[in-house]
Amino acid sequence: MPKQKTHKGAAKRIRVTGGGKLMHEQANNQHKFEYKSSTRKRRLDKDQVLSPADAKRMKKLLGL
């Protein structure tokens, strides 16, 4: 059987923590910062844990 390849698109967007959780960057945090409040920008800056429903699918793509 051939080995399963890592999905490179998923690998660039999701990181795995030491405890095995999957983290992703929040949406709306790339551009158009002029009209976003400082509070909103700070809130969006933090990475979020991937939802359990999506985590199962992503683990397959990442080969975990």
Could you explain how this protein is built, in words?
The protein has a single domain, classed as Factor Xa Inhibitor (Irregular). A 3-stranded antiparallel β-sheet has the order 1-2-3. The model has no long low-confidence stretch (mean pLDDT 92). It has 3 helices and 3 strands; from the N terminus they run H-E-E-H-E-H. The protein has helices at residues 8-13, 38-45, 52-62, and strands spanning 14-16, 22-24, 48-49.
Tell me, rounded to a whole number, the average pLDDT: 92
| Strand residues, percent | 5-15%
- Profile the largest sheet: 3 strands, antiparallel
Query: How many separate helices?
Result: 3
Pfam families: Ribosomal_L35p (PF01632)
Family: Belongs to the bacterial ribosomal protein bL35 family.
Keywords: Ribonucleoprotein, Ribosomal protein
Protein name: Large ribosomal subunit protein bL35
Label this structure with key terms.
ribonucleoprotein; Factor Xa Inhibitor; 3-stranded antiparallel β-sheet; elongated; alpha+beta; Large ribosomal subunit protein bL35
Summarize it:
One of its GO terms (molecular function) is structural constituent of ribosome. Helices cover 39% and strands 12% of the residues.
